[in-house]
Specification:
Membrane topology: Lipid-anchor; GPI-anchor
Number of helices: 0
Keywords: Cell adhesion, Cell membrane, Disulfide bond, Glycoprotein, GPI-anchor, Immunoglobulin domain, Lipoprotein, Membrane, Repeat, Signal
Number of domains: 2
Order of helices and strands: EEEEEEEEEEEEEEE
Subcellular location: Cell membrane
InterPro entries: Ig-like_dom, Ig-like_dom_sf, Ig-like_fold, Ig_sub, Ig_sub2, IgLON_domain, Immunoglobulin_dom
CATH topology of the largest domain: Immunoglobulin-like
CATH architecture of the largest domain: Sandwich
Protein name: Protein CEPU-1
Length: 182
């Protein structure tokens, strides 16, 4: 009897999908005896195999199901062979943190807006209904992948009021209001 170690001959490409969509991953392997194929999600929360089959179907995918999926082909002739497929789940922004802040006149003040989104959110700030421009006197806007920081170097009475942070990506946008007060 000739034995042949397992070899993955075909595997799905990395994929990017909107939350709620359906994903179908394929992993084909050869070997003798025929290899057993298993799929698992490489994630701290994952437990064991999610499929013991060449195909892995995920319907209504959630953001928690993004990440790497590993296909393993084993037939006891040699060590199992493994390959991974990256699944990116896109979702619209949601603002996880936006707190009002009290700052005395003459002090430095910071308003922070944290948002989770894939692809990363773009941020904009408004005071009442007026958009704040980068480089406005006495103000600094710092945008990172998951948050935006609005810094007032020297708070004046005119700075007090209602501010809105808008986070947006291709899938949608959301906003949160906060107050800078004395």
């Amino acid at each position: 009897v000739i034995t042949v170690s397992p070899k993955i001959t075909e595997i799905s490409s990395d994929i990017s999908i909107n939350e709620g969509g359906n994903v179908s991953l394929t992993c084909i392997a050869t070997g003798r005896p025929d290899p057993t194929i298993t799929w698992r999600h490489i994630s701290p929360k994952a437990v064991g195999f999610i499929s013991e089959d060449e195909y892995l179907e995920i319907t209504g995918i959630t953001r928690e199901q993004s990440g790497e999926y590993e296909c393993s082909a084993s037939n006891d002739v040699a060590a199992p062979v493994v390959q991974r497929v990256k699944v990116t789940v896109n979702y619209p922004p949601y603002i996880s943190d936006a707190k009002s802040t009290g700052v005395p006149v003459g002090q430095k003040g910071i308003l922070l807006c944290e948002a989770s989104a894939v692809p990363s959110a773009d941020f904009q700030w408004y005071k009442d209904d007026k958009r704040l421009a980068e480089g406005q006197k006495g103000l600094k806007v710092e945008n990172k992948a998951f948050f935006s920081r609005l810094t007032f170097f020297n708070v004046s009475e005119q700075d007090y009021g209602n501010y809105t942070c808008v986070a947006s990506n291709q899938l949608g946008n959301t906003n949160a209001s906060m107050i800078l007060y004395g």
